[in-house]
Amino acid sequence: MAQKPGLLIVAGPTASGKTACAVELALRLGGEVVSADSMQVYRGMDILTAMPTREEMRGVRHHMLAVADPREKFSAAAYREAAMKCIEGIRARGGTPILCGGTGLYIDALTRPMGFGERGSDEIRAELAEIAQRPGGREALHAMLRAVDPESAARLHPNDVRRVARAIEIHRLTGRTQTEQALHDARQEGPFDERMFALDWPRDELYRRIDLRVEKMLGTGLVGEVRRLMADEGHYSTARQAIGYKEIAAALRGECAMEAAIMTLKQATRNYAKRQLTWFRRDARARWISASGRSPSDIACEIAAKIEGDAR
Fold it and tell me: How far is the C-alpha of 66 from the C-alpha of 46, rounded, in Å?
């Protein structure tokens, strides 16, 4: 059997320092970073999605950032196809691909033989989208999911319409819940010999980092970016799915005070981080690296040492 190519993965919740760690690893290993973030794939929402800046990239080439039109659907299957080409290109240049992100679905889509061969159904999607648009539709859609896949319903917020609908679609197409499908996929051989590391923080420290991230976003123009997106919602329909958009937009429409919107945004981000942690803690491949009180360079050094130890 041919040896599978290796793939280094840096995962973890939002604001855990994944990008800085991945950049340090890239500088050490001669690598390039492939983003695994379901919102950073879209153009025009740099602040809202906490897109890495040129300064943060430190000259390291990054892929799968701002590659999709915000009006188009960018599924996990589309991500897999595009990211696979990026990884092939990195290897062709003699580099080390480093997958970095907090979207577990994207990481699994790339590294597991996911059931995305089951083509999505435009009819099912249209039906579910129509339900979601009705008064109380999001709650009705979430109830539909709860009836067939209570575990996914407990993990997904009713406002996360796209993922709620996708979980329902998977059940209709395969007869399996999303969890059952994930377990089925986990038993299959993937295309890579991956080494997955997840950054671990004490909960209170992670929440402080999230609050600081939000304050930084506000300081770099988040309110102005949301105002711009609101003025062209037809083009940036995807923006409504990003954490921060609806919170700041509500304040700009005068529905609440900006201070209250910011508090809601911070809480929504913490809730998202909890969902990410739940996802990655279920992944047996993840090796958790303590990040508290350590620099990205120190963390990268530990990961590089573990990779070297694995190779012996």
Answer: 8
pLDDT digits (tens, 9 = 90+) for 277-304: 999 999 999 999 999 999 999 999 999 9
The one-letter amino acid at 90? I
Q: Is the domain of 214 the same as that of 281?
A: yes
Domain-embedded: residue 1: no
The angle formed by the CA atoms of residues 45, 35 and 166, to the nearest 5 degrees, is 75
Question: Burial of 145 by CB count in 10 Å (0-12 exposed, 13-18 middle, 19+ buried)?
Answer: buried
Q: How many domains does the chain have?
A: 2
* Residue 287 lies inside a defined structural domain of this protein: yes
Q: Give the C-alpha separation, 15 to 34, whole Å.
A: 18
DSSP per position, 186-220: HTS--SSEEEEEEEE--HHHHHHHHHHHHHHHHHT
Verify that 203 and 291 share a domain, yes or no: yes
Residue pair 95/30 in contact (Cβ under 8 Å)? The answer is yes
Q: Which residues form the domain of 67?
A: 6-113+189-311
Given a cut of 60, is residue 84 above it in pLDDT?
yes
